[in-house]
């Protein structure tokens, strides 16, 4: 395998990793703050992608507008499920939220397949030619995707580390009882968290649909790579989620040059096993103790 | 009608076997296995492929149980010492990996085409017509034996330890027991039961294909155990019957509701499964038949 192919795969992996870093960040924040693995993020992504399709076909809106509406709609969806399901489960064992999140995932996906069927859709975008640097190809659309993801990630990192609200969020992640005792409104933090989760998954799903095709299993099939990367980065660590996801994206794309694309999920599983075996705290995290 | 009743009873009993195994893991030990169908698939393929090589069925059934149980060992050893919800993620990954390998490694499994023509359990000496009835009786015996085993285990020292791990792991650790070792054993035993159920399924349907082992099956079993009450044998029985009534009943729904396509019908079933998971956890956390000692979890 020559270097040009590997470079192309790596570039593709970085774009994919940046894009999936959006839902990965959502997963790690939920893990850190609400303390359960949120299995519905994949299907929130699917919902975002289908919303974008719907917006495009009925309103012939621009891509930017479609992306904004998709993230807003998914944020509402996430908020709805927080208000109905996860709010009441927050006082119970994390296992309850975990099982309920599977239910949420199924409910969302079934509504999509009921109305849209099993057939695949594409998000309409103007065709562009790749820039070619003596074999190394870069798609301008990939640059837009990556730039959008970077912007969104930067916004959340700014919020987490440079605003009072971000400090409150980190305080709740650190110790919810202590945070509540010192006057932080945990409810408010949770609502913001749900909005971020929805918006990021919706945007991520729309970008994923833009890069590939839109299918009902779009998000569900990404859950495992996302969880593997979150654990690789260290559960609850936002920087870890982004780095883990990019690293995973690159290795997935390079590995699929050798073993074929259908083994992507197997790779995620192997990474997951190795990380848990060798360094369960991941790159940037702590071991989650039994709660 | 008679044939239909026998067929549906066999399905109920196969699901009940799976529900017993998962209930041992979740209801009695508190382990969240989201990849249960993976062990079911391992059992089905192990027994199916071995029997085609001429291995007698009792041996291939045993191999199915042993292999499914043995594959649970590394997953348990790696994740259960860590606590938290790693097991849920790793088992989900396991079942999807198994399904992909079954699809892609077609030198062994014939890939998506599946493996047809597996031998049926009692056809050699009971004939086709009474073979199913004999199988039904065998499944009934196996299920009763498994219930007896669970009832015995729960009352044994092992059962008390796994129940206390579920309720308070730190306390168990303080008593000098290693929770991971007990949890791994429970995981292996439950997975071996899934393997056994898989072997029964394979030789009853006589055809195995990767599409039979999608994650949805795992959550069918989850529904069965949480609707009934995850740590009661009565709960397992009633939950499985409710599940199969729903699955069978929804097949006839199309006759009553016109203008619904196959995909939409599947979506409605899927929606009801999702909603049932959410609503049971929200409003009936201990199922219809809560254990009298259990508090809201």
UniProtKB/TrEMBL annotation, chain A:
State where the protein is found.
Cell membrane
Q: Predominant location of this chain?
A: membrane
Q: Which UniProt keywords apply?
A: Amino-acid transport, Cell inner membrane, Cell membrane, Membrane, Transmembrane, Transmembrane helix, Transport
Keyword Transmembrane attached: yes
A GO MF term: L-leucine transmembrane transporter activity
| One Gene Ontology cellular component | plasma membrane
Bilayer-crossing residues are 6-34, 65-86, 98-123, 143-165, 186-210, 222-250, 257-278
Q: Which PANTHER family match?
A: BRANCHED-CHAIN AMINO ACID TRANSPORT SYSTEM PERMEASE PROTEIN LIVH, HIGH-AFFINITY BRANCHED-CHAIN AMINO ACID TRANSPORT SYSTEM PERMEASE PROTEIN LIVH
What family does the database annotate?
Belongs to the binding-protein-dependent transport system permease family. LivHM subfamily.
The protein, known as: Branched-chain amino acid ABC transporter permease
Q: How does it sit in the membrane?
A: Multi-pass membrane protein
Q: Name one GO biological process term.
A: L-isoleucine import across plasma membrane
From TrEMBL, chain B:
Q: How does it sit in the membrane?
A: Multi-pass membrane protein
Query: GO CC annotations?
Result: plasma membrane
Q: Which UniProt keywords apply?
A: Cell membrane, Membrane, Transmembrane, Transmembrane helix
Checking InterPro entries in the record gives: ABC_transp_permease, LivM-like
Residue ranges of the TM segments: 6-24, 31-52, 58-78, 85-102, 133-154, 187-207, 219-247, 268-285
- Where does this one sit in the cell? Cell membrane
According to its UniProt record, where is this protein mainly located?
membrane
Question: GO MF annotations for this entry?
Answer: branched-chain amino acid transmembrane transporter activity
The record's section on PANTHER family has: HIGH-AFFINITY BRANCHED-CHAIN AMINO ACID TRANSPORT PROTEIN BRAE, HIGH-AFFINITY BRANCHED-CHAIN AMINO ACID TRANSPORT SYSTEM PERMEASE
This protein's name: Branched-chain amino acid ABC transporter permease
Q: Which organism is it from?
A: Pseudaminobacter soli
Instruction: Recite the lineage of the species.
Output: Bacteria, Pseudomonadati, Pseudomonadota, Alphaproteobacteria, Hyphomicrobiales
């Amino acid at each position: 395998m020559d270097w040009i192919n590997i470079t192309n795969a790596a570039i593709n992996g970085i774009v994919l990793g940046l894009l999936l870093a959006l839902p990965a960040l959502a997963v790690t924040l939920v893990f850190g703050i609400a303390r359960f693995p949120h299995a519905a993020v994949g299907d929130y992504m699917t919902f975002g992608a289908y919303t974008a399709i719907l917006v495009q076909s009925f309103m012939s809106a621009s891509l930017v507008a479609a992306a904004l509406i998709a993230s807003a709609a998914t944020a509402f969806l996430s908020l709805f499920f927080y208000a109905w399901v996860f709010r009441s489960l927050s006082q119970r064992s994390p296992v309850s939220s975990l099982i309920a999140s599977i239910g949420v995932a199924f409910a969302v996906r079934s509504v999509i397949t009921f109305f849209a069927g099993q057939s695949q859709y594409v998000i309409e975008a103007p065709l562009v030619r790749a820039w070619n640097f003596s074999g190394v190809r870069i798609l301008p659309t990939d640059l837009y995707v990556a730039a959008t993801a970077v912007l969104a990630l930067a916004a959340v990192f700014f919020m987490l580390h440079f605003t009072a609200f971000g400090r409150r969020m980190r305080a709740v992640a650190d110790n919810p009882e202590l945070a509540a005792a010192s006057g932080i409104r945990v409810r408010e933090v949770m609502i913001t968290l749900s909005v971020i989760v929805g918006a990021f998954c919706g945007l991520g799903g729309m970008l994923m649909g833009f890069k590939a095709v839109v299918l009902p299993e779009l998000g569900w099939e990404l859950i495992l790579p996302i969880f593997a990367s979150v654990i690789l980065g260290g559960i609850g660590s936002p920087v870890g989620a982004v780095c883990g996801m990019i690293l995973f994206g690159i290795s997935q794309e390079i590995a699929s040059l050798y073993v074929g694309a259908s083994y992507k999920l197997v790779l995620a599983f192997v990474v997951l096993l190795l990380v848990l075996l060798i360094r369960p705290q991941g790159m940037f995290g702590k071991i989650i103790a039994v709660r | 009608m008679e044939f239909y009743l026998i067929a549906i009873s066999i399905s109920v009993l196969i699901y009940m076997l799976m529900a017993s195994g998962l209930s041992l893991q979740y209801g009695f030990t508190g382990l969240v296995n989201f990849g249960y169908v993976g062990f079911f698939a391992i059992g089905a393929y192990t027994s199916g492929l071995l029997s085609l090589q001429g291995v007698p069925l009792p041996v291939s059934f045993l191999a199915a149980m042993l292999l499914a149980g043995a594959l649970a060992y590394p997953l348990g050893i790696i994740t259960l010492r860590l606590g938290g919800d790693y097991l849920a993620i790793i088992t989900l990954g396991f079942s999807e990996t198994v399904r992909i390998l079954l699809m892609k490694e077609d030198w062994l499994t014939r890939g998506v085409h599946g493996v047809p023509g597996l031998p049926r359990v009692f056809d050699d000496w009971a004939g086709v017509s009474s073979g199913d009835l004999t199988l039904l009786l065998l499944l009934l015996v196996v299920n009763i034996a498994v219930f007896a085993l669970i009832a015995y285990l729960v009352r044994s020292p092992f059962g008390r330890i796994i129940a206390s791990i579920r309720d308070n792991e730190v306390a168990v650790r303080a008593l000098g027991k290693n929770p991971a070792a007990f949890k791994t054993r429970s995981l292996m035993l439950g997975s071996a039961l899934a393997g056994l159920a898989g072997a029964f399924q394979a030789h009853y349907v006589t055809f195995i294909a990767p599409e039979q082992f999608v994650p949805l099956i795992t959550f069918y079993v989850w529904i069965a155990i949480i609707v009934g009450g995850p740590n009661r044998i009565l709960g397992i029985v009633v939950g499985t019957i409710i599940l199969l009534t729903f699955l069978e009943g929804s097949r006839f729904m199309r006759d009553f509701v016109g203008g619904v396509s196959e995909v939409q019908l599947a979506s409605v079933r899927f929606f009801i499964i999702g909603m049932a998971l959410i609503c049971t956890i929200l409003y009936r956390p201990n199922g219809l038949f809560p254990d009298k000692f259990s508090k809201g979890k």
